[in-house]
Amino acid sequence: MASATHLLTDELDIVIPTIRNLDFLEMWRPFLQPYHLIIVQDGDPSKTIKVPDGFDYELYNRNDINRILGPRSSCISFKDSACRCFGYMVSKKKYIFTIDDDCFVAQDPAGKPVNALEQHIKNLLSPSTPFFFNTLYDPYRDGADFVRGYPFSLREGVPTAVSHGLWLNIPDYDAPTQLVKPLERNTRFVDAVLTIPKGTLFPMCGMNLGFDRDLIGPAMYFGLMGDGQPIGRYDDMWAGWCIKVICDHLGLGVKTGLPYIYHSKASNPFVNLRKEYKGIFWQEEIIPFFQAAVLPKDCTTVQACYVELSKQVKEKLSKVDPYFDKLAEAMVTWIEAWDELNPTGPGAKLANGKAK
Amino acid sequence: MASATHLLTDELDIVIPTIRNLDFLEMWRPFLQPYHLIIVQDGDPSKTIKVPDGFDYELYNRNDINRILGPRSSCISFKDSACRCFGYMVSKKKYIFTIDDDCFVAQDPAGKPVNALEQHIKNLLSPSTPFFFNTLYDPYRDGADFVRGYPFSLREGVPTAVSHGLWLNIPDYDAPTQLVKPLERNTRFVDAVLTIPKGTLFPMCGMNLGFDRDLIGPAMYFGLMGDGQPIGRYDDMWAGWCIKVICDHLGLGVKTGLPYIYHSKASNPFVNLRKEYKGIFWQEEIIPFFQAAVLPKDCTTVQACYVELSKQVKEKLSKVDPYFDKLAEAMVTWIEAWDELNPTGPGAKLANGKAK
């Protein structure tokens, strides 16, 4: 596996949304320095973000986003970590690992530092098993396998599109739970990776996330959040609902569990409540919408699936709030921008230079 | 929790299928002695099974089963641990814990003996969350909760009907995997309990299993296996497919994960291959059948669901093998026998004496 990890240094970008100096990278140096970083600077573009010496990176601020996307930059959120998805769009690599700047290296129960990226790569390079549950969790891990009663026809699995990692210390709770349990810390290291079954939705957190850009990239849109929008902190949730419906439709896998990062800083629950409160109502209607969503058979690309989903959002969720009209349009704009920056077809690979 | 565990001594039976003296209970004494045992003796009824002193038990051999059930005893397997389900039928308690006689007390990573029954009780007394995946696993455990993005309307959960425990040391592999990996041992202690999502089937192992008899008992039929049957080692799998479809229909939960037991003895893979090989073919058709099975809305009791399922088995699986005709009939016989031994309606509780 070490060699596979090494191999991917040319095939993986690390995307970090931030408004401050990236001191947190010092702790990650042994694991992340070999990789290229795409830093998406949120907020005031005149501010300088310091990156520790030795890291290879490109940095985009709001002015860059506006210049590169022109009018389509409206689909990229401002003053919200949702802006990170711009980094997915300008990357030219096969894999993305995205991490928040308040996430540090976790330790396993033996006290060993956890190389989160290596585990994401393991998750992404081994298949998923969405059609039947394996009670010993990921059957492809060392020391595990498919248990008695697991159909042999399903043991090849399907390609893994997404690897969702977890968080020790500060758990990813909503504002009401933060308010009720201010002191709760996650200390339970669950040594498991598992495929989220087909037909099951999950709350995808963007804090510690790996994915295969070639397989699912165009659906990893983090929506319209933050400045000028009625909602925040639902960027990753939105992406999670969309990617799961599309992965299920296209026969791709989504894994959750390992790797852990150490999440250091609980965000302010009062601020969060203001950002979240419409989402807390809306998710009661959004989730049933996604649970019932069916994509037509002729949607065979991620882009086609995503545009179809945008139509269903407009049709079914606009009655919840006019915001969803705007979001549905932004979903289409996002795909247009993605396709412009990521042309396909003959010669596309050659033409596909860096956006900057 | 300790008091809840104590309380359940009057509400839980432990069902053990066996052909030998129950020396394995010595190791379990601190945890299991307060409970009543129902021992289902398989094989030669003239053999005497020794039970360690101090355990409270009733024991049924084949002669007892034939006497109690009369012609309906045909639905209880012989020379196969599937016979254990007779114990579920004659119990009058709300909860069942069933365990194999080659299962010993496991240790957690800190070296502490695992009280498997206590964990099953915790699993059964706390709700399940089948409609949406919680990435921090069981949200009702100490130190855990629902994560951001989990709909508040679903946080009450649903009643838990089944608690499926796992195995350290010898994993529950099929014969081909046993043959290919004779030395593989499960050493990974995954500190998690999770709900198997609605619509997802799983391979239920009967080695270390708890369930709520009132909620799902009549569906816990382990089928026709062993003596005179073309198949073995699919008893628990059959029950697992049936209970999951019925739990999904009735809005009940199925959990898997903790507790672990220490599984000491790998069964003979050559013998297992002979028992399993038809099942290895058949499961490729049986599982899609169960995945597609829909129960009508007017099936509101476990019995009604089970009889309906038996009709669908007859209709859809008989073409796989005539065995499924016989199995479908045995499913109906099982329900008739269950209802005879477990009358409901006015005065039923009073009339409900011990079967023996």
TrEMBL record, chains A, B:
Entry EC no(s): 5.4.99.30
Primary localization class, coarse: Golgi
InterPro entries: Nucleotide-diphossugar_trans, RGP, RGP_fam
GO MF assignments: UDP-arabinopyranose mutase activity
Site (Required for activity): R148, R155
Top EC category: isomerase
This protein's record includes keyword Cell membrane: no
One Gene Ontology cellular component: plant-type cell wall
Keywords: Cell wall biogenesis/degradation, Glycoprotein, Golgi apparatus, Isomerase
Reactions it catalyzes: UDP-beta-L-arabinofuranose = UDP-beta-L-arabinopyranose
One Pfam family linked to the record: RGP
GO process terms (BP): cell wall organization; plant-type cell wall organization or biogenesis; UDP-L-arabinose metabolic process
Sugar-modified residues: R148
Cellular compartment(s): Golgi apparatus
Keyword Cell wall biogenesis/degradation: yes
Functional description taken from the UniProt entry: Probable UDP-L-arabinose mutase involved in the biosynthesis of cell wall non-cellulosic polysaccharides.
Family recorded in the similarity comment: Belongs to the RGP family.
Annotated PANTHER family: UDP-ARABINOPYRANOSE MUTASE 1 (PTHR31682:SF46), UDP-ARABINOSE MUTASE (PTHR31682)
Stated name of the protein: UDP-arabinopyranose mutase
Species of the source: Prunus armeniaca
Taxonomic lineage of the native organism: Eukaryota, Viridiplantae, Streptophyta, Embryophyta, Tracheophyta
Gene for this chain: ParM-14
